[in-house]
Amino acid sequence: MAAGRHVMRAVRVVQFGGPEVLKLQTDVSLPVPKENQVLIKVHACGINPVDTYIRSGTYSRKPALPYTPGLDVAGLVQDVGEHVTDFKKGDRVFTLGTISGGYAEYAVASVDTVFALSDKLDFKQGATIGIPYFTAYHALFQKGSAKAGETVLIHGASGGVGIAACQIARACGLKVLGTAGTEDGMNLVLRNGAHKVFNHRKEDYITQIKETAGAHGIDIIIEMLANVNLANDLQLLSNGGRVMIVGSRGPIEINPRDTMLKESSIRGLSLFSASKEEMRECAAFLLAGIEAGWLNPVVGPEYPIEKVAEAHKDIIHSQGALGKMVLLPR
Ligand SMILES: NC(=O)c1ccc[n+]([C@@H]2O[C@H](COP(=O)([O-])OP(=O)(O)OC[C@H]3O[C@@H](n4cnc5c(N)ncnc54)[C@H](OP(=O)(O)O)[C@@H]3O)[C@@H](O)[C@H]2O)c1
Known about the structure:
The chain is α/β, with parallel strands linked by helices. It is 28% helix and 27% strand.
């Protein structure tokens, strides 16, 4: 138990709906870690678009109500379950799988989703590793079979997954093209591994990408907004090229014929569907990247927990991403 405390501040959702259903409460029971769980004192929590889909009640995964949102957390270990030997009170950690919810002062997570947080990174950075970096690695290598020397287009490179994908792809020897919707976003993408960047709000940017890719085309596209871009993506691919659908917010019409001559493929992925082995491989690769120094999460806008509803509006509606949003519990 946290220094004799039994209650904490936490965001609660009692019914699915818009951002207004996110309510900050001051009397939420502190979670108690079970045998293989770790109780973390939350210093920062990453805000992911999926938090908003779950909150709206339209996502395939629906938690039992009431619940506390938030999956990616970094902080200090406060307590551990009786079977946990890898961590002790006071350890700096991050997780991508809180069980009790990260928009809170304390959260429990299963020990197999908790990792030591390097002294090279602060807690806000720690809270932005989980879903963005694991997804980027899963998309690039475990599902996309990316190889050194190939050209990758990160279509939507200025946000959480995009920056992660740029850093990873560059570190692994790919030629990295990225897109963003603002000048600041474009500069950020360039500083984080892209060789070249394009503005996805400019009318002629697809032509510019085509010119840059040349006759060979793009080997792999990491797509953040497939409902807008998929038809264009198919025009950009090389022979045998693949579009990896990370994000999509609606339907789109494509011509399947555009995949035939180049024998290209369109593949969707979800980190929630990754196997335990794949997750372990992601973790080993990413932890090595932190130690090597090339994995350096970019923290975007920061929101105090009182402004959680504003954060949820912004992550869906604001333009000009600059890294990953974080929620601060105090
Ligand atoms: N499949 C999975 O397992 C998985 C995991 C994590 C995330 N996702 C999904 O992947 C997407 C990105 O997640 P995130 O955490 O990176 O979100 P984010 O931080 O909010 O970033 C959104 C990105 O999309 C870009 N974007 C906006 N308009 C675009 C357009 N027309 N074409 C291309 N990109 C555009 C934004 O650029 P500007 O703001 O600069 O315009 C920004 O780079 C979301 O839809 C999320 O739900 C899926």
